[in-house]
Automatic annotation (TrEMBL):
The lineage of its organism: Bacteria, Pseudomonadati, Bacteroidota, Chitinophagia, Chitinophagales. Residues 201-394 form the Alpha-L-rhamnosidase six-hairpin glycosidase domain. Residues 529-586 form the Alpha-L-rhamnosidase C-terminal domain. It comes from Chitinophaga arvensicola. Residues 1-22 form the signal peptide. This is Alpha-L-rhamnosidase. Keywords: Signal. One of its GO terms (biological process) is carbohydrate metabolic process. It comes from the Bacteria.
């Protein structure tokens, strides 16, 4: 509950300067913060919430560290009062570890005083998404790196001045005085929080506080990744991975509504990927581009933007429709064959997943081509789908492939859910494809199973101290695992440094990855029951599924304003719904 309140509060801070926007309950005390406007992001300065660690037996070598928890103004001054004084010897170099309370994107501000030497002083600054990462060295053992963003650096702070460093994802920062026999007076150590100042228009609240917390955490995870472009991670993978974007754009539609970061990122991927190349080098990622375009048009109804994609879309669909062999099997051999990392060694599963994705993509492409009055491409897509549906590969136990096969209609969703998705509960779930596993369970009518899996899988990350969702998570990591917001105790497993695989081994593992936000749009779509039934949200279908919940309420952003719903389970088990919508939006209730 405490973490949820922190999430809600920080989100409120993001909105506090805009009185006309939807607001959430407060979290951080605004007296601790100041704002500088930039475009398209803002910068806020946050004092740490606590000091987790200091150099053992530092004694007088660290004096008055508690002053860092006070509000700051970012200004050095001649009064030189109430300073923290760090003193080193040739053998003792004092350090402190700060906790800023939740995952942030940005850097660190250091404000100094008038110490005796009057010269710059060297500090080592280490950012971490976990306590153990902030305490780590750049070394191969647990794979701490400076990839994508430098998180471990040596800097010089000026006498009676200010230094701002860092551009990464973090919650924890460790600073160490490196110079021998030196004194440093520090007035402030504050996080520089960089984010888009946008309102949380969508909302979700139900009778289960864990689900409320999960919804908000997914929303906040994506919000942090909405930087100049829509990234996958704010520490590592600060890149536009177009396939990874699909859960993120689904979350943006459910929470923020239209935001220019989506078309900007879609266009970047298009413009740097001439046909017949595949986006990010992966055959499935160009297909995800088509699926995102379909979903984005459905939400925004922006025909002018869709027309800008017409030539590329036509060329891509033409290319894909030819990638079918004589056995009606997908023949995508000219790029990297990939669904997600946990499934990457299951080649039969990848084939089954790509077969399904081809159907999903060509179906979306046909729908968009129809809007664009390109009947020739519509026919080409439909003919290719008819061929692909004649070949039903074996998912080979892959929950990723099974989910896509259910969503594409290759295999009945109930059969997929019973035979593969529900086996072992959330065993073999992944943070990326977990969204599609949940979607397939909903298509099978197993809404309660979806709620249970969200609680078990995403809820487990929260119990380990997460304030954003991770690049990957495996339930096998749980036994005797440490929390990310505490020092690892003797005999415990380091949940961050000891686990991970492929590109996310150890501390290279991102603990804020937008592709993990799937529960947020899923809860909006299936518990609140809100789905878009006509382009531009002109028709909204509302079909709630409360499962074991007593009530659920929330909002959904459309181009015309908010749709507001409240569903209450009555004593007889029936659901009473109160629905309000803008005049331009037709509501269909089933």
């Amino acid at each position: 509950m405490k973490i949820y309140q922190q999430l809600v509060t920080v989100t409120a801070i993001l909105l506090s300067s805009i009185s006309s926007r939807a607001q959430l309950p407060p979290v951080f005390d605004s007296s601790r913060m100041a704002t500088v406007q930039t475009t398209p992001t803002v910068r806020r300065y946050l004092s740490p919430e606590k000091i987790i660690w200091q150099t053992p037996d530092a004694g007088d070598h660290i004096h008055n560290a508690a002053r860092f928890l006070l509000p700051g103004n970012g200004q050095a001054d001649l009064a030189n009062q109430n300073m923290c004084v760090l003193k080193s010897t040739s053998t003792l170099h004092p350090g402190l570890l700060f906790d800023f309370g939740k995952e942030l994107h940005g850097g660190l501000q250091l404000v100094t005083g008038m110490y005796k030497s009057g010269k710059p002083v060297k500090l080592r600054v280490r950012f971490g998404e976990s306590v153990s990462e902030a305490m780590s060295d750049i070394e191969p053992g647990k794979n701490a790196t400076n990839d994508h963003a430098v998180r471990d650096m040596i800097v010089e702070v000026p006498w009676l001045g200010k230094l701002e460093v860092g551009n990464t994802g973090f919650r924890f920062v460790r600073i160490d005085l490196l110079d021998d026999n030196a004194e440093l007076q520090l007035k402030e150590v504050r996080a520089i929080f960089v984010y888009r100042d946008i309102p949380y228009l969508g909302s979700f609240k139900c009778s289960d506080e864990l689900l409320n917390q999960i919804w908000m955490t997914g929303a906040y995870t994506v919000h942090l990744n909405m930087q100049d472009y829509l990234w996958d991670g704010i520490k590592r993978d600060r890149l536009v991975w177009i396939g990874d974007m699909h859960p993120e754009t689904s979350t943006i539609s459910a929470v923020f509504g239209y935001n220019e970061v989506v078309p900007k990122s879609l266009d970047l991927s298009r413009d740097i990927t001439p046909l017949p190349q595949y986006m990010n080098g992966m055959v499935s990622y160009s297909m995800w581009w088509v699926l995102i375009q379909r979903d984005w048009y459905q939400h925004t109804g922006n025909l002018a933007y869709l027309k800008q994609q017409a030539a590329y879309l036509k060329g891509l669909l033409d290319h894909l429709s030819k990638k079918i062999d004589a056995n009606n099997s997908e023949d995508l051999q000219d790029g990297t064959r990939f669904l997600d990392w946990p499934s990457s060694e299951n080649k039969p599963g990848i084939h089954a997943g790509l077969q399904a994705m081809m159907i999903m993509t060509l179906d979306a492409g046909a729908a968009l081509s129809k809007v664009l009055n390109d009947e020739a491409t519509v026919k080409k897509c439909n003919d290719a789908i008819a061929k692909l549906k004649k070949n039903i590969p074996d998912a080979n136990g892959s929950k990723q492939a099974a989910a896509l096969m259910a969503l594409s209609g290759l295999v009945p969703a109930k059969q997929i859910n019973d035979d593969i998705l529900s086996v072992g509960g959330v065993k073999d779930y992944s943070t990326f494809y977990g969204y599609y596993m949940l979607q397939a369970k909903a298509k099978a009518g197993d809404y309660q199973g979806g709620l249970n899996d969200i609680r078990s899988y995403w809820g487990a990350m929260l119990k380990l101290g997460a304030t954003t969702f991770w690049e990957d998570f495996n339930m096998d990591w749980l036994p005797n695992a440490s929390r990310i917001d505490a020092l690892v105790a003797p005999g415990q497993k380091d949940i961050h440094g000891d686990y991970g695989a492929y590109c996310y081994k150890g501390f290279r593992h991102s603990l804020c990855h937008g592709w993990a936000s799937g529960p947020t749009p899923w809860l909006t779509e299936h518990v609140l029951g809100i789905s878009v039934a006509a382009p531009g949200c002109k028709v909204i279908r509302v079909v709630p599924h409360l499962g074991d919940l007593q009530f659920a309420e929330g909002t959904f952003p459309t181009p015309y304003g908010l749709v507001k719903v409240k569903h209450t389970k009555l004593a007889n088990g029936k659901i009473q719904s109160d629905i309000k919508a803008p005049a331009q939006v037709k509501i269909i209730r089933e």
